[in-house]
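hey so i finally got around to running the thing on that chain from the lab meeting. sorry it took forever, my laptop kept dying and i had to restart like 3 times. anyway pasting the input first so we r on the same page abt which one it is
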Amino acid sequence: MEAIELVILIGIQASGKTTYYRRRLEGEYLHVSLDNWRGKGNVRGKEREAILAALASAGASGGQVRGVAVDNTNTTAQTRRRYFDMAGEFTAATGKPVSLTAYFFDADLASCLKRNAQRPADAPAGVPYFVPPAAIAGFRNRLQPPRYEEGFARVRRVRITDDGGFAVEDVPRP
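ok and heres what got predicted. didnt touch it at all, straight out
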């Protein structure tokens, strides 16, 4: 049985996660983003429900949907642990295996701050919005690149290219 892929997008705000999803993953992966519930209380509970429902949809798609992409900063190994727990819970309940892949958006702070400055502060839910620069710097200071030791089946590094595209490379196993 082929595993359902749970893609974890990892990077600070304005590092390209949502744009990458829209350009490269949309159609093959269902999208779950905390931005969808911004200001609506209990976002982690809503995220959990959405991920489990999306995994079920992907599993029932007959291979038309490869998996689920979680679009959030996911800056530390500790915060990412919940996705491994959800995958285990889903597999235990359904018998369908889940494989986790990390996409690490390796972007410099200055570029992210520049892109962030172009975002609206009053963007509707589900749309990237302006984040105070000090908050982005704080996330950058806490950012831990993903490691295979966390349990990822695959780790990929993503960089925004000079022409606004994306360069993606697999991070070799240690």
